[in-house]
Amino acid sequence: MATPALRIGLTGGIGSGKSTVAGLLASHGAAIIDTDAIARRLTLPGGAAIPGIRDTFGDALIDASGAMDRERMRALAFTDPQAKKRLEAILHPLIGIETAREADASTPRVKVFDVPLLVESGRWRAIVDRVLVVDCSVETQVERVMRRAGWAEDAVRRVIAQQATRAQRLACADAVIVNDGLSLEQLAVEVNQLWARWCTPA
Predict the structure, then answer these.
(1) What is the mean pLDDT of the chain?
(2) Is residue 1 in some structural domain?
(3) Per the domain annotation, does 173 fall within a domain?
(4) Range of the domain at 70
């Protein structure tokens, strides 16, 4: 009898190093289903979300290429919570469909669902077998995003304020990788240990 798939929900705040952990899990052979990447594809020219975005927000939120204008949409969502909810109402059902399609099409036994808003959505706990949280201090988050993306500090802190708190994420976790002050090699050791514990057949 085939060993059933292990479905891991991976989450963490902006700048936590979640994507790096996803890459390390992929190096062990896990399939990574990245909901952020799916959302980006849905909002590219010709993406399935574009008609709904145009109908809801108008042509001003569609750029010259036919994609969603990400910067203008981000600015709108920061200042108008109802706009954020309307965008999520368009995107989330489409993301759910594509996530399920990718998971069903993937062959590795370990399937990692990389979901930034896993805790906020409220539905993922019932979908996955285990939840892995990548955690770090808020100050580390701010420093990393400012260095990586060139954002202003207040912009990073606004995003953090809109995400689940560290306590909320930790309350959902089956395992936590604390990614504060770790080198890439040290982070890889943490992932190796987790893989041995969760994903290596007894």
Answers:
(1) 94
(2) no
(3) yes
(4) 6-196
**Residue pointed to by tokens 């994903």:** 199
- Going by C-alpha positions, the residue among 200, 38, 18, 180 that lies closest to residue 103 is 38
Q: Which two tokens stand for residue 12?
A: 């963490």
* DSSP secondary structure letter of residue 41: H
Please say if the pLDDT value at position 189 is more than 60: yes
Alpha-carbon distance of 151 to 198, in angstroms, equals 36
Sign of CA dihedral 69, 66, 60, 82: negative
Q: Does residue 201 form part of some domain?
A: no
pLDDT given at position 123? 86
CATH number at residue 152: 3.40.50.300
The answer to the question of residue 187 being in a domain is yes
Residue type, 96: G
The one-letter amino acid at 102 = E
Which amino acid, one-letter code, is at 19?
S
